[in-house]
Specification:
heterodimer, A: 424 residues, alpha/beta, Rossmann fold, 2 domains, 4-stranded parallel sheet, 50% helix, globular, B: Nucleotidyltransferase, domain 5, 5-stranded mixed sheet, 4-stranded mixed sheet
Chain lengths: 424, 442
């Protein structure tokens, strides 16, 4: 991939934010700052920031490394040290990176954790991942927030209290102890307010895909749009500014009647409007993306962009109930939804975004996503009458991205949509 | 005559089909895909067009009263003669390549004996061909590589046995020089080849020589317009066609199966390197599909690999398995592991037939999981692809499908290998004349 990708101003801005972030991690220790390792789903970023701690997100490191072509070697190293081929490749990429000296995606060193904060337990692999890291960093405290699954399809008051109590009684004291600072409720409220402002703009951007043509790609572009809000920046002025800038760019695209921006410029004709389920492949991200835009396929809604919360279904961080809102957030990420709720959500996307079909990218690594996906496919086909497509790849293991096969499948899928349109 | 062409570029064979403007099959051709897809597509198309010419010829002969009675015999001779000419042309090119190869300095020490051996081998092949290209003679393959290869090997073995050069050295000559020959196409005109073939027919069939010659020449030179060609198959991106003339093989197989068996709702296609489970609606439009993705286990190549391991021809594998008396359960659908499992079972004293039958069942079971993923099997069920020609695979499929989905109508067309090409040709036709008129076609 030699061609320089075409980027919007907001993308450049985000790149700078990320670069500053990794920079601050690289110099954390010399600046006397402590770091907390945590995961994207259910992350307590505002709370971590409340104690002037820095979050490190291992999945983000893995996917960033994947996009930079580094994970193949890392995974190989992890497998050499005994991890099975069947273990989640995010984990193996992280372990491999650690073994190779813990240099992060930008080539700068990552700081050792001062705490492992597990704030989403819906993914069993997260638990095991931190068990592995605990072994590596023997003196590092571990804090676990137990997050109940939305088995019945909603969050009950008891569930909310259960999680909020843990935040109050376990997480905050542990963070106070680590940082030597007192919890500052007013700062939390101020930060949560900023979160909700940015979240409003994010939702506006995601929902702009209802336009025809859609001004955004809600999957390949979407993963950039969710970047700041799902990671270290939520609650910061940086994030508020980023989303304002992004929104203004999209407003302009709508005004000009433009489709999404792709690495090769603006998309021409919008031929297929697709909803996707499942994470993208990171190791061949641009190649994967090209398979869509070269056929005129635009993703108008995706479930992957909800792994850090379903803002588009109304959730906002609520400064008036700071602890409860964090509890709700932890329980509200996409993979914590029951299977029927996931199906309902996808069905509503199919309708609201006037999609032509549902495409599932089933990744080998992630059972939280992949279990039940064929049922989802059948059910959506039945409910909407729209064709479903199914491809298989992986998150960051390049061995599981068979480009020729995936391209073949995608082309067949798009042509199937076309053929069925012809019939209608 | 106007014709619409579909080309299905598979990993093992390339198929072409020509339809007339009513969607009726005019001709079809098949060739091995070799390493050069462009040539494979060209050869298959040429074969299909040749077939069209013969179809036109047949119609002309039958329409002409005085030839109608002898038409059948004459057609058979003409076709055999035509194929014989093509074979001899390719053989001459092969011989030329071999002779040129012998000019290489590494043959300095035995050039004379090698040339002499070649002389005898090619003489033998030509004699074999004269017998093989008579109407009604059984042919083991349609492909020059297979036919010439088998004959070359047999004669080389004989020459070597009689004190000629080492067998390996002779076969090496064939292996090196068949490749350029396969990548060349026939340059002589249909008319030329047809008339050369005609001259080989027995005298009693050539009663009214002048009139018949004229009729043949007319049929051979009648204009044939290729209105549109649509390409499909695994190698389709390599086809020198514009993008709009390329369709996914999923759509082509679905439509092709529908055209062959209009009540088809589920299609299973097992080809050389992929397996497809396709659901179609009452119009042959694909509604859902699944293909093997991360791994090619359980495809046609699996059987090819086993045949290689056993040192028998692929087409002999099915009949061998049909002789099974016991059911042997094979767990591995990994192509490479299957070889080990095969040898292991043999060592344990199990019968070859039984093991091979087990291997067939194993790939069918793998196909069943793909079918389940695509939405199960609905009646009627059509089985296509190279593996559908294997009786043991069909038997296993019938059993397993019935165990899982109860009684079903299982359709297998004798020419199911052309399913994708028929679909592609129909797309070509529909692109030009629209879908409505071709709904009942083929």
């Amino acid at each position: 991939m030699t061609a320089q990708a075409i980027k919007d101003q907001s993308q450049e801005r985000q790149k700078q934010m990320l670069s500053d972030y990794f920079d601050s991690l690289a110099h954390a220790k010399e600046n006397g700052r402590k770091v907390v390792y945590t995961f994207v789903p259910g992350n307590l970023t505002e709370l971590i920031a409340n104690f002037d701690l820095l979050p490190v997100l291992p999945e983000i490191n893995a996917l960033q490394n994947g996009m930079r072509g580094r994970t193949g070697d890392f995974i190989h190293a992890a497998e050499k040290s005994g991890h099975s081929e069947d273990v989640c490749t995010y984990v193996k990429a992280d372990i491999g990176m650690l073994k190779a000296g813990n240099m992060g995606p930008t080539g700068q060193p990552l700081p050792k954790p001062d705490m492992l904060l597990l704030s989403y337990t819906g993914c069993f692999t997260f638990l095991k991942w931190f068990e592995l890291l605990r072994k590596e960093y023997a003196d590092c405290p571990v804090v676990m927030l137990h997050v109940p699954y939305q088995g019945d399809g909603h969050v009950t008051p008891q569930m909310r209290k259960y999680v909020a109590d843990q935040i109050r009684d376990k997480v905050i004291p542990a963070l106070e102890k680590l940082s030597g600072r007192k919890f500052d409720p007013d700062k939390l409220k101020r930060d949560l307010k900023r979160s909700s402002v940015a979240e409003d703009d994010l939702v506006w951007v995601l929902e702009s895909a209802r336009h025809k043509p859609s001004p955004i790609d809600a999957y390949f572009g979407g993963v950039y749009y969710i970047g700041p809000i799902f990671t270290a920046f939520r609650g910061t002025q940086d994030a508020v500014d980023y989303y304002q800038l992004l929104r203004s760019e999209i407003e302009e695209r709508i005004r000009l009647g433009l489709g999404p921006v792709t690495p090769e410029g603006n998309l021409g004709e919008e031929k297929y409007r697709i909803v996707t389920e499942g994470p993208p492949n990171w190791t061949s991200f641009r190649e994967f993306w090209r398979m869509f835009y070269s056929e005129g396929a635009v993703v108008v809604a995706s479930t992957y962009t909800k792994v850090g919360g379903l803002y588009d279904r109304g959730f906002r961080h609520d400064p008036a109930n700071p602890i409860e809102t964090l509890a709700d957030y932890c329980m509200g990420c996409y993979t914590n939804l029951s299977l029927p709720e996931r199906i309902n959500l996808i069905e509503s996307y199919m309708n609201e975004y006037q999609a032509d079909g549902l495409l599932i990218n089933s990744v080998k690594s992630c059972n939280s996503f992949s279990a039940g996906q064929l049922l989802i496919l059948r059910e959506i086909e039945k409910r909407t009458g729209k064709p479903g497509g199914f491809i298989e790849s992986d998150l960051v293991d390049p061995r599981y991205f068979s480009a020729a096969n995936i391209k073949n499948r995608l082309e067949s899928y798009f042509q199937m949509i076309e053929a069925r349109r012809g019939r209608a | 005559m106007e014709c619409f062409i579909g080309i299905d570029l598979g990993s093992t064979t390339t198929k072409a089909v020509a339809l007339d403007s009513q969607g009726r099959m005019l001709g079809r051709g098949i060739t091995n895909s070799r390493s050069n897809y462009d040539v494979a597509a060209q050869v298959a198309r040429q074969e299909a067009l040749t077939n069209v010419r013969f179809e036109m010829l047949s119609r002309a002969l039958r329409a002409e009263g005085r030839f109608a009675d002898a038409a059948e015999g004459l057609e058979a001779w003409l076709l055999a003669g035509y194929r014989h000419e093509c074979f001899l042309g390719a053989l001459t090119r092969l011989e030329d390549h071999c002779r040129r190869d012998l000019e290489n300095p590494r043959f300095d020490s035995d050039r004379y004996t090698m040339n002499d051996a070649l002389e005898r081998i090619f003489k033998g092949i030509r004699a074999d061909a004269a017998a093989a290209y008579t109407p009604g003679a059984a042919s083991r393959s349609d492909f020059f590589r297979d036919l010439a290869g088998a004959s070359f090997t047999a004669h080389a073995a004989e020459v070597s046995r009689q004190g000629g050069p080492a067998f390996d050295r002779l076969v090496g000559l064939f292996d090196r020089n068949i490749i350029p020959v396969e990548n060349e196409t026939e340059t002589r005109s249909f008319q030329h080849l047809l008339m050369a073939g005609y001259r080989r027919a027995p005298d009693d069939l050539r009663q009214d020589d002048d009139a018949l010659s004229r009729l043949l020449e007319t049929a051979a030179t009648a204009p044939l317009t290729e209105v549109r060609t649509v390409g499909t198959g695994y190698g389709r991106v390599r086809l020198p066609f514009p993008k709009e003339c390329i369709r996914s093989e999923i759509l082509c197989h679905g439509l092709g199966a529908h055209l062959m068996f209009p009540a088809t709702r589920t299609v299973l296609d097992i080809g050389g390197q992929d397996t497809k489970a396709i659901q179609v609606d009452e119009n042959g439009v694909v509604t859902s599909f699944q293909m093997n993705d991360r791994c090619a286990a359980g495809c046609g190549r699996y059987l090819g690999y086993i045949a290689d391991e056993m040192n028998i021809g692929l087409h002999e594998l099915g009949p061998l398995a049909m002789g099974a008396r016991r059911r042997v359960k094979i767990n591995s659908t990994c192509t490479v592991f299957a070889g080990a499992e095969f040898r292991d079972r043999l060592a344990a004293g199990q019968a070859r037939e039984d093991i091979v039958a087990g291997l067939h069942r194993a790939i069918i079971l793998r196909a069943m999981s793909l079918l389940a993923r695509s939405g199960g099997i609905r009646n009627e069920f059509t089985f296509t692809g190279g593996v559908a020609r294997n009786p043991a695979a069909v038997k296993a499929l019938r059993e397993v499908a019935e165990e899982n989905y109860g009684g079903l109508t299982l359709n297998i067309a004798p020419d199911s290998i052309y399913t994708g090409a028929v679909g592609a040709a129909t797309f070509a036709l529909r692109d030009v004349v629209g879908a409505a008129t071709t709904q009942e076609a083929a």
